[in-house]
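Dear support,

I submitted the protein below through the web form. The confirmation email said the job was done, but the results page showed an empty box. After a refresh the structure appeared. I'm attaching both so you can tell me whether what I see now is the final result or a partial one.
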Amino acid sequence: MRRWIGGFLLAAMAACLFGCSATGPRYSEMAESLPSLGENAGRIYFYRNTLAGMAVQPEVTINGQVVGKSQPNSFFFIDRPAGTYRASARTEAENSIDIVLLARQTAYVEMSIGLGFVVGRPAFERVAESEGRKALPSLAYGGTMPVMAKAANASAPAQAAPIAPATTAAVATASTATPSSGAPMAAPVVQRTSISTAAPPATPPAPPPALPPARSTATAAPEATPFAKTSINDLRLLLQANR
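What the results page shows now:
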């Protein structure tokens, strides 16, 4: 019976552990891809590396704005301009911490859950940079800020701007080149995006003027001899007279 109860408790604790922990990549897997800081900005890491009160996961606010959750074995970070910020969390009681952030500075805040009357109470503690850097590598990322792969972006080649296609009018050049042999040779015709325009129909040429009728050059036949015009009776009278 005791073994059965012990096994049930272990299974429940394991289910709660996996269900309550962050599911993001570990810090050691994403450290090289974190974005770099600006000239006047700093970074604050919030992390929780204990399982105590693992079912209690209050939201964490910065100056009243929710920036993450206090989850066991997890971390998240925020980037802010240099200044003073108040981090707070609430369960049955509220706890907060003031963080003075300098330009290009990285601050580390350890979160935990203490004992309470009904549920655990949140707690914050700012730790030294050496302690925070030592605790982060094994923790999973539980933040909402998207992480850009800086190395991939830096190595990606810049894409060349697309070249617009040339939109030129029709170019037709035909020149005759005289080679050494003396025979003319027509140059090849180069055409690009030809724009054809219909030429107007050619006007038919006017017909030539009518020529005057040709004059006959034939000579008239000579007139007939006097005998051709003499009648038969006259010829008879002439013949009788000659007798």
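Response: this is the final, complete result; the empty box was a page-load delay. Residues 24-145 form a domain with the Immunoglobulin-like fold (CATH 2.60.40).
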